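Model it.
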Amino acid sequence: MWRTMTMHLNINSDSYILYDGKTPQEIHQKYDENDKSWSLNLFDTGKHRQFKINPFEDTCIGIYIDSPSESVYIMTLKETRINVWRLTMMVTGIIVFWCAKILSRNSLFYYACGIILGVSLSVIILIYVAGKLIPRGKAMYVIFAASMSLYIAKTLWENMQLIIMQYREWVMWYVLVTSLISFVICYRFGPVTNTRTKQIIEWFLQLVGLALIYHSSHFHEASFSCCIIVILFYNFPKAAFGRAKRYWQHVFPEKRKLINEDQYRQEGIRQTRKALKGLQNYCSSPECNPWKTVLKLKDPIRFAKFMEGESHLLEDEIEEHEEEISKILEKGEYTDDDDDSF
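Modeled.
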């Protein structure tokens, strides 16, 4: 389900164009259309050196080289049985979908999303400044803003590692300043308080979670089935879960572990202390009427001593209890010997 195939192109020249499709006829058609028509494409230059291939579909790759005699290339195919990134993507999608209600009402999540969104969209300021340099006109400005935003985003994404390595300090200060500005704006307006707005945010997060689950695998039938299962489990009534659990316990009852005599006595002592402590707490609470309690007692003084922390048993009672235990043990030993004789 999380298998991926990666094509690596090793070529000693930049004068090439990549074509991809499902059949060789489609590759030839794309080549003919590109050869016959003049087009300026800023966003898909065909200069990829590494690209993913769907392992569950037929794929055809075509490479056009301007000077085949001077350019040499090698293509290698790498298969990953379990892509950790795609597996993480699915797990993240399930968590986002399941916790959407909690996240939509969490202030920390609100500020984090606001800061990330502010840093990501700060490039609009650069586009606005660049828009001052072109002639006035709404249509021209919209076209320029749309094309420039896509081009800048693509360029930054492709050269992200190089930019971070070479301009580390500038990137750090840029992220820090934009994060601070975004936090101030979010703090000024405050977290969302409207119930319907929170509901919309919850639905949006659930859609994002389902999108992550669906796109986490090239095997879309399986990922779509996972989406259905997550939705069913999320909306399944809790009463049905409890009923199924009780039925399972009835059909397959848990085997009880029997305790020995020593454990039985220790459990009795533990439960007795717990019950006596509960009795002391209850009698000390406002719920208990002390005068009515005293009227029902045969020995109020003994009860008062018990409430002050003394033992609830007298010495005579302790001795009598030990004698009874000794008789029971002797009787048990006699019975065991008697059984052994048979």
